[in-house]
Design goal:
CATH superfamily of the largest domain in chain A: Dihydrodipicolinate Reductase, domain 2
GO molecular function (chains A, B, C, D): inositol 2-dehydrogenase (NAD+) activity
Number of domains of chain A: 2
Radius of gyration of chain A: 20 Å
Biased composition (Basic and acidic residues) (chains A, B, C, D): 251-260
Helix content of chain A: 25-40%
Enzyme class (chains A, B, C, D): oxidoreductase
Oligomer: homotetramer
EC number (chains A, B, C, D): 1.1.1.18
Order of helices and strands of chain A: EHEHEHEHEHEHEHHEHEEEEEEHHHE
Protein name (chains A, B, C, D): Inositol 2-dehydrogenase
CATH topology of the largest domain in chain A: Dihydrodipicolinate Reductase, domain 2
């Protein structure tokens, strides 16, 4: 196997996690460069991970001849531009979601990718989670027959700060977008209509800045199936993410992982361990596996598991949900 | 404790089950009479259960001085009339759902009950199920904090015959009505708006007679919570009925009972036992417990766990869901 | 089906429970008589259950011509004598365990039963429990292949009184005897050697009267399998009774039933409901099912699920375990 | 934090795994050298992991001044000698189990370690497993009260080759030794007596070479608790390793992890995913965590979680079990 020489752009919390994972996947990747405009200890990081090239300027990294692929984990507003630059430089691209806030910007970036015939994989990490992946495999294999009902629950342990919420694009764009992607992934069909209800039940401040913290969205799919997603910004018991596909031959669903599998029994009943809270723990292996698959897609020249179009569709669904909530009525999704 | 002398009206499948349960609750009830217009072996049944009085005419049973209470399990179209007759005769009443198909008929029957100050308990057996009851107790005790999201899944093992479907009043009236009741029970609030989607995914014949077999309904509650119910007429794996209440302090949900608690592990993975299919097995204890509580309500002169108003509200929700499905938009529930 | 006319001897806690169950199994049984030497309200019980004949003298009941079968739930020291009398009177017999304290008395009673060609079923209720029964069915069907390891845990919620312990015959005879029976039932083989360890870890008073409250016994079976049983007189979390059979093709085990199937999640982890404490709740259905099967065995003239020999073997195992504990070494079981 | 400069001795399957883990723990370790007498691609490995020093001679590595600690994963017969050499060179030592086959050789090595005041951690990886570790924490915290019954099941997915079995030292030394260690760890007490039963039920060839493949051992502990361990060389359903501690206040036990948490329901019942088979997957995180704790013990100068004495005690228990099996009677453990 030939190693892919990769550069990492953006060294915030997610960027650093990807850097660590890439460094440990030493049979797949050689980290050749890192770029971040405002990371003070970039030189230290370069040393720690034995990276020969570092820069404050992402463009410099993108045009570096010794780099075959880039991982973009910089702030959202830079994604589309960096994708386009990397595509034009002929580099394969792994990009954190979302591609852009505006649907047209996403479409433009995808067109550039297409024109330059590079690969683009989006960081919808949950598709690589062992639980959701197994549901997908069951659906794909036909074991559950025709999907008829899709149910997804997705609840964060804590709401983000109000400052973050203000710039987040709203619950549908920031949070449920993962679930819209999951709904498409598990149903293997496109959503044709959404209806959204929701409110700020957790924190009225969230309502004051025009967002909601609790929502349910119903979905109609092209293949006839129907579904729903619920979201909460605050599940005190952990990072609760579950899904269920019900079909003509059976149903498959997944519960959360727990910190351990113990059962503790007392006079008060039975107790089991907590669901992990931080998503980095919840999806630690998924973050590694998405990088392994990105490698495989390039090596074998196969299509990626999460394409740019997947990012576009999820954004279109989020937009439709937002519109439905505002209008108080169902909305047909426009593609 | 004084035994209640009870008469059973209607001796179909459900009526016979109630008769058996009443006979076994010998510390609470003495079955004094049975009435059924078309049950050929009514004399045999009277002998089997040691019942001294039997008749083809329900009115005769209702006016019998030796009877304190009646259990109505006859065909739906007779319920309202029998409730009114029994109320006027001063008898306490246990009646299978629904009270009537028309909202106005229900209201009229409830008024007669009120005027005559008798007790009326409706046969929403699931409220007495050990699983749903425990969820209720958790919500009631404040353990989960303020309810924010209510989710209910309710799937039958097999669709009924097309002939039955034609006269059933439709999925919302015939099947989801139980879940509307459960939603009110678990949320401890009234539903203000519903939006219904659904289709005939299981059997196109069901669609041809104007009904659906698969549905999702979203709910907005007065207390601010939101919720959803899904229904399927055919879950090949059994009688799947689950509920979840998510709140500010935690969530409580229930899985189905199974025929046994075994875990069987092979090279193919782990296997556990089936969910029971027939509702009589699924809710066997609930059917007994609702009769025990009916007894207690009378003996202690306390309010019943499922009132006539509960029947009315569930019917109003079913009607609103039907309207929403037809209109393709959310509908405010009228009370 | 012809009803069996049955008489109940002994009206203590267990006797009353059987009486209630027999009365409710009205398609199988007609309770024709009850007998108890010291039950003050025997006349009331006769009235409650509509039993025409009652007496203080068990022998009177046994010779009553209108009675086809007897259920013996009187004190242990009367069992052998009553079995013999009933057998000589040609009555089929259901008898609570144990048959007698002395092995020779058991053997004598079984001989009389054999000579008189009546049926004798022993009240090892756990064989009828839905969980253990399902394990048995899996083993029987060959699904787990050749049994290799048998593990049984059996723990009571509370130790009995010291006064009871003094006359109980010791933990092996009083408590583990059920598990010896279960070991034979699930392994479908005879035990050839036992080794017992144990101590009074829960209450030193139990040690002072010469008994133990915590024990582990290893088992060698004729078919080559090995196994172990653990017992505790005090599991604060409920009536904990589990079993596992491990074989060449897989393993099957059972967990306890719980009061409900709820899962309650908080910041403190997940919680599930308690294991029921009183054995009457734990085995409520098993107590009913053993009477149904007793009926079927008689009606179809088939062998009973728990024979007198099963009672004898379990007693022999208890005796061997007692001997092993005293000697501090393994003991071959003598049959 | 100061990095520990470590050398790895032995580059077989386990040695390579440790090398990978050490390389990824880049905040704790710098791998300075590797040594293996017969690994053809040692130079390649050195390059892959960026290790500056490699040699065929372990002694050379041990005396290398740039190395602070060694990890010994070479063949068992070299362990004691390498421990002694490393101790004399003042290096901290992580050594795979067992230290030696002969009890006296273990004692000698431990004495040399003690004399030279270096740290020695033994590779009983299961102590670091998230499940067993949680049980330990529950026992340690007093949540289960006084431990009374300890139960451990440990079953491998496949027996090793007959050639391996011949030189393995037998089931107790090769396999149950992990469980003896777990019994001591979870009970927090020493074993005083063992009684072993077992046979070759899986493969008669194993019996022919003088070993067994299925065993149960009972344990008496100093603190009064009793316990048992079962072992099988072949659990067709995966690497089945479970433990339970039952005490005066409750019980805590752990089930196995599974490949995923899905529940798949069909007309045939419910299905869950497999237990992983290879121990490298089962204990992947435990292998990482034991290296993290080794680092912490050195950095903070604290005692290691698994000491040389722990290795000695487990070996003494294995020896006693072997003796018990041969003699057919219980054996007091000599320390």
């Amino acid at each position: 196997m030939v190693k892919i020489r990769i550069g990492v752009i953006g060294l915030g919390r997610i960027g650093k996690m990807h850097l660590e994972n890439l460094a440990n996947l030493r049979e797949c990747y050689e980290v050749k460069g890192i770029a971040a405009p405002r990371t003070p200890n970039i030189a230290e990081l370069a040393e720690k991970y034995d990276v020969s090239f570092y820069t404050r300027d992402a463009q410099e990294l993108i045009i570096n001849d010794e780099i075959d692929a880039v991982l973009i984990a910089s702030s959202t507003n830079t994604h589309a531009e960096l994708i386009e630059a990397a595509a034009k430089a002929g580099k394969n691209i792994f990009c954190e979601k979302p591609v852009a806030e505006e649907i047209n910007d996403i479409k433009h970036a995808l067109q550039v990718v297409k024109d330059n015939q590079v690969k683009l994989q989006i960081g919808f990490d949950r598709r690589f989670d062992h639980n959701f992946r197994t549901i997908y495999d069951y659906v794909q294999s036909g074991k559950i027959g025709d999907p008829q009902i899709i149910r997804i629950s997705s609840r964060d342990p804590e709401p983000p700060s109000i400052d973050y919420i203000k710039v987040s694009g709203g619950l549908f764009n920031d949070m449920m977008i993962h679930d819209f992607d999951m709904a498409r992934y598990l149903s293997q069909s496109e959503v044709t209509e959404v209806y959204a209800i929701g409110d700020s039940l957790i924190d009225p401040e969230i309502g004051k800045v025009g967002d909601i913290d609790t929502a349910i969205v119903t979905l109609k799919f092209e293949n006839g199936a129907i579904g729903e997603i619920d979201n909460s910004r605050k599940a005190v018991y952990g990072h609760d993410q579950r899904a269920e596909v019900f079909g003509s031959k059976g149903k498959v669903e997944t519960d959360n992982d727990r910190n351990s599998n113990i059962d503790f029994e007392t006079d008060d009943g039975g107790h089991h361990d907590k669901i992990p809270k931080p998503f980095q723990v919840r999806y630690a292996q998924a973050y590694i596996d998405e990088l392994k698959e990105f490698y495989n897609s390039i090596e074998k020249d196969e299509s990626v598991r999460v394409s740019g179009t997947d990012a576009l569709r999820a954004a279109q669904l989020a937009q439709a949900a937002q519109k439905s909530l505002a209008a108080g009525k169902p909305v047909k999704v426009e593609y």
